[in-house]
Amino acid sequence: MSPSRQTSQEPTQPRLGFDNLGLGVGLRAPHFGYLLEHWPTVDWFEIISENYIDSQGRPRYVLDQIAERYPVVMHGVSLSIGSTDPLDYDYLGKLKKLSGEIGACWISDHVCWTGVNGKNTHDLLPIPYNEETVQHVATRVRAVQDFLGQPLVLEDPSSYVTFADSNMTEWEFLTALTQETGCGLLLDVNNVYVSSVNHDFDPVEYIENIPWQNVVQFHLAGHTNMGDYCIDTHDGHVIDPVWQLYKLAHQRTGGVSTLLEWDANIPDFPTMHAEVLKARKLIQGESIASESGDAPADRSGVVVPHPAHHIDHEVG
């Protein structure tokens, strides 16, 4: 049995040629069995690209089954668009091949660098925000877009350090990058909140100054409050302040594809899907209450998860 293709949101005009897919969730290995048995009505799925590049066996079988029935978006963590290393055309070729095979709606990654001199740090590292970096990243974005034959979609990162060389805000940098390249933006609303706490800026000012015409997707997620800073852990429910930022972002765009990320302490599929469906209630003016607060966690001595650490969990 195939699921319905009806979306949870009213359709809006495509941005950069990318449709509003509705409310989606990440495709995660713990849910494979449930999905193959129930084929739930879900608007769309997002995959972590690296989990399926060069991957066969059960993960690829499930992905192919999903791609036959649902829209799929590819979200990567290895493009390293901010690095000074040459672009990895072998990796880009694999992205393009997988995208063609599964009919991916678009390909996204992060405004960050992940390594240098051929060494991968397995983390999403921030870049300085200044004109020199704009030009460096824009040159690489244009090259990637030419290779892929479509606009690249880039996500604002969560970050924990800033640079003395930065003389732009993050939203000013993203605006300049979109003006230089025409690329799309994946606005991770939770990342805006996390970075606003870590760097003491106003998240509402950030949201209100994003170039909305280039935003094609939102991310929602939970995070971990460490007391005087936050970590983007994707391990729980979305908190109320993030929902309120999402509501503002939705108003600014008129609605774009929205996806919930939940990558650690992953609940059963109905629980995860129910979390993203709260967005529909919020959009319709209903009140929603977060199922978790933002009290500081007792994490002393415990390593908390980070999104870039989940690449290998689904392969096998």
Automatic annotation (TrEMBL):
<dbReference type="InterPro" id="IPR036237">
    <property type="entry name" value="Xyl_isomerase-like_sf"/>
</dbReference>
<dbReference type="Pfam" id="PF05114">
    <property type="entry name" value="MbnB_TglH_ChrH"/>
</dbReference>
<protein>
    <submittedName>
        <fullName>Uncharacterized protein</fullName>
    </submittedName>
</protein>
<dbReference type="InterPro" id="IPR007801">
    <property type="entry name" value="MbnB/TglH/ChrH"/>
</dbReference>
<feature type="region of interest" description="Disordered">
    <location>
        <begin position="288"/>
        <end position="316"/>
    </location>
</feature>
